């Protein structure tokens, strides 16, 4: 097995050679250098964000240049986007108690030709939470893959391509496969409509599509990230979940989940199934009490996991701590417990009996953490004179992590600091803006909707919930709240509203010399903003060549 294969993780049909991993456990820095050598031909920003180590096989067509494949994929996404709901529809559904999301999902799943009994022949790991649930799932998937497991992973939202939501062995589903599975499921559902527009909504459809893909790919385990909440989420139809994770909790989607932390904890703990092993690093006593109660009701076993630092205290592993990014430091322990629990509960050649303690980390586990990559979360990318700090934080809890990370990253830098910010949901975000403001003194602040250019967004980045007018109104409101905060804090107001990310980056490049130095750029507030920023820079730089 080559070094690149070890770094990429095992192939589905092969088990890792443990002794080979042991011999290469101290290779990350050297391997990164080798990968960097391969990418000396000015990699695109997209490549740097999604494949920074240069490990994705060239025949993977996630970002393929095949025009026919791309055209067919975009046609499928355009059809998928018809299933999106606008803001009025979503708010009306909140007031309609007759909507049973799980029953609805089961109905459409059956219509799509996939009975629940067949779906439950697969094995699942289910993770809920306010902050870090997606990161925990990504880390768990990486740990399993490095133990020879053939993995599926369903998450949301995506950054650039819809295919990011459905991953096989750590890679976004190839566009060609996505298109094929999409039309199979879509046509079946369309043929069996009982009335006009009798189709599942966007997220519900993608959940069903992911289940079809996992069956088709015959994965050993599917890692499921909850969409919203847990109790009533589309992903919560599977009953045979033996390994459950609950990540950090905070106030979010209060119009759906409740106005208090205990209410939100009750919703999140709704994914606990009878007899399951439940792992959490939730810290609030009132939340733990609710989770504990729901676990007892299901005769499930609840485990509170230690901090990730717990596993890196010995001299043997302490050297690796600084190589771990913030995502791993925050959610690594929870992922370790989820992965090792699944491995201990499964039978056959994938079965492992890991003993978790601070003195020992199996090489597959350590390498799985070191190799894990979850784009757009506390991610630093150096690109054409800019140090781009990418983080899709959109809650107070996640923004606290983001701003702390950004402040630490620029602490030794004297370069200009630029903020690019947007947040689509909610109304009063003064507290979040204050948090962002405390990170540093910004030389330039850009408030911009999630539009890459003045042309329509690419199909994968089309979100119909809010009209262009609503989006601009929201951006101007954020800028106004920023100005009011600056007045209150008696500080200069460097905020400005832009119509597109292309306009914002053009202004940045005109004001600062990115050819002969670096500028520090923080892009945060929305995952969709990150996608628009990546697309804008790709568009601008391709236009110049």
TrEMBL record:
InterPro entries: Folylpolyglutamate_synth, Folylpolyglutamate_synth_CS, Folylpolyglutamate_synth_euk, Mur-like_cat_sf, Mur_ligase_C_dom_sf. Pathway: Cofactor biosynthesis; tetrahydrofolylpolyglutamate biosynthesis. Keywords: ATP-binding, Cytoplasm, Ligase, Magnesium, Membrane, Metal-binding, Mitochondrion, Mitochondrion inner membrane, Nucleotide-binding, One-carbon metabolism. Its main location: cytoplasm. Its cofactor is a monovalent cation. A monovalent cation. It catalyses: (6S)-5,6,7,8-tetrahydrofolyl-(gamma-L-Glu)(n) + L-glutamate + ATP = (6S)-5,6,7,8-tetrahydrofolyl-(gamma-L-Glu)(n+1) + ADP + phosphate + H(+). It comes from the Eukaryota. It is an enzyme of class 6 (ligase). ATP binds at residues 377, 391. It is found in: Cytoplasm; Mitochondrion inner membrane; Mitochondrion matrix. Mg(2+) binds at residues 156, 225, 253. Belongs to the folylpolyglutamate synthase family. This is Folylpolyglutamate synthase. It comes from Drosophila persimilis. The gene is Dper\GL13134.
């Amino acid at each position: 097995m080559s070094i690149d294969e070890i770094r990429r993780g095992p192939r589905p049909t092969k088990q890792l050679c443990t002794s080979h991993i042991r011999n290469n456990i101290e290779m990350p820095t050297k391997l990164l250098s080798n990968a960097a050598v391969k990418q000396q031909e000015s990699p695109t920003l997209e490549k740097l964000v999604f494949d920074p180590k240069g490990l994705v096989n060239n025949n993977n067509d996630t970002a393929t240049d095949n025009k026919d494949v791309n055209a067919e994929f975009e046609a499928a996404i355009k059809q998928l986007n018809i299933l999106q709901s606008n803001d009025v529809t979503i708010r009306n559904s909140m007031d309609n108690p007759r909507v049973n999301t799980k029953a609805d999902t089961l109905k459409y799943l059956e219509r799509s030709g996939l009975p629940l009994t067949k779906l439950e022949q697969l094995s699942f790991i289910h993770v809920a939470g306010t902050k870090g649930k997606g990161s925990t799932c990504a880390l768990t998937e990486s740990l399993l893959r490095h133990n020879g497991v053939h993995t599926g992973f369903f998450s949301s939202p995506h950054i650039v391509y819809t295919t990011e939501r459905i991953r096989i062995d750590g890679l976004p589903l190839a566009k060609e496969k996505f298109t094929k599975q999409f039309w199979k499921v879509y046509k079946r559902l369309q043929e069996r409509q009982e009335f006009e527009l009798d189709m599942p909504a966007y997220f519900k459809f993608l959940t069903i599509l992911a289940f079809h893909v996992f069956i088709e790919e015959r994965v050993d385990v599917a890692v499921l990230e909850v969409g919203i909440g847990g109790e009533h989420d589309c992903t919560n139809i599977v009953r045979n979940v033996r390994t459950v994770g609950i990540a950090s909790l905070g106030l979010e989607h209060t119009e759906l989940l409740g106005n208090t932390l205990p209410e939100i904890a009750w919703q999140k703990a709704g994914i606990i199934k009878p007899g399951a092993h439940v792992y959490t690093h939730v810290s609030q006593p009132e939340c733990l009490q609710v989770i504990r109660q729901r676990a007892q009701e299901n005769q499930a076993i609840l485990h509170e996991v230690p901090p990730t630092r717990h596993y890196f205290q010995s001299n043997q592993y302490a050297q690796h701590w600084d190589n771990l990014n913030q995502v791993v430091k925050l959610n690594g322990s929870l992922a370790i417990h989820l992965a090792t629990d699944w491995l201990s509960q499964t039978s056959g050649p994938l079965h492992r009996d890991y003993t978790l303690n601070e003195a020992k980390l199996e090489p597959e586990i350590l390498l799985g953490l070191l190799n894990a990559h979850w784009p757009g979360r506390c991610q630093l990318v150096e690109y054409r004179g800019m140090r781009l700090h990418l983080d899709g934080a959109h809650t107070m809890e996640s923004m606290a992590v983001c701003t702390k990370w950004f402040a630490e990253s620029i602490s030794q830098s004297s370069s200009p600091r630029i903020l690019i910010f947007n947040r689509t949901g909610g109304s009063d975000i003064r507290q979040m803006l204050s948090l962002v403001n405390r990170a540093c003194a910004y030389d330039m602040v850009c408030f911009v909707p999630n539009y890459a250019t003045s042309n329509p967004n690419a199909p994968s980045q089309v979100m119909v919930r809010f009209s262009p007018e609503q989006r601009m109104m929201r951006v101007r409101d954020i800028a106004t709240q920023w100005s009011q905060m600056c007045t209150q804090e008696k500080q200069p107001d460097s905020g400005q509203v832009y119509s597109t990310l292309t306009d914002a980056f053009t202004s940045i490049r005109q004001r600062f010399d990115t050819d002969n130095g670096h500028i520090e750029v923080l892009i945060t507030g929305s995952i969709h903003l990150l996608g628009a920023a990546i697309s804008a820079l790709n568009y601008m730089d391709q236009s110049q060549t």
